[in-house]
Amino acid sequence: MSEETIDETPPPVRDRPALDLSGADFDPARGAVGLLDAPEHTRLRRSVTAAFTAHGVERVRERSRRMLAELVDEMLQDGPPADLTEAVLSPFGIAVICELMGVPPADRQGVHTWTRLILSASPGAEAGEKAKKEMGAYFSDLIGLREGSTGEDITSLLGAAVGRGESTLEDAVGLAVLLQIGGEAVTDNGSRMFCVLLTRPELADRLRTEPEIRPRAVDELLGRLRHRNAVGLSRSPLEDVEIRGARIRAGDAIFDLGPHYRPGGTLARLESELLVDALLDGVPGLRLAVPAEEMPFKKGAPISAPEALPVTW
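Above: the chain's sequence. Below: its structure in token form.
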């Protein structure tokens, strides 16, 4: 389990040379929202900023707490052993991002299936591209229905932006797909966090007996856990350049987030705090059901996380 610290907030870079956007990891479509620059990107991102502020995320806290309590109760009723990821972590993360996005409960499993196909390399590029198009069509319909909406969820905010002429429907759909996928990817934070706590029970015991340190511990864990096998969109400079004393040669793959830095940090913290409280307090005997070295990890995925967390109590 890597504890490498990665600072995902890059320093501002001025006077950047022209960049080749063909990326070493994947070739995003030109015009995709992830590649937009100011002022288009700034205007589009501003339309959903309110949903990712502390107030916006707090809006879904109580509903998220209730959904989580129901999942934990169901796991306890079914009895041990259980896969913590399947029983609690994954369905909780899906429900929270869908709640924030404004995806109706009846549609959430379908949206989750599309996300898994897009994020996983195993079904193949064709299946992932098909899933992305289907998800795009879904959000196109949903955002279109919410033009002029005063709702606080993301699709309502995007619909309102389209209705005001501040965004095209195409760009709004692109952002919705990006946020849904990224938001569900954030759910793997729970798997990584409990992988640490279950393989180091002394840490879990301390958080049980000292609940006042949990918020600080969550921040520390989120800061230290490796989030991705890669960070950002891979880009290549078209000419040699020196930035802050670092020499980057033409053709070198670099990662540049800048204004595209993910907005989901507040959401990740909310989910993690709720999970720590619910599982450490609600299942005090929670422990791994298999040796740590036998835990399966995801393969061929951009997110480094356990495939399953077999537990007992």
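Residues 1-28, 228-233, 256-262 have pLDDT under 50 and may be disordered.
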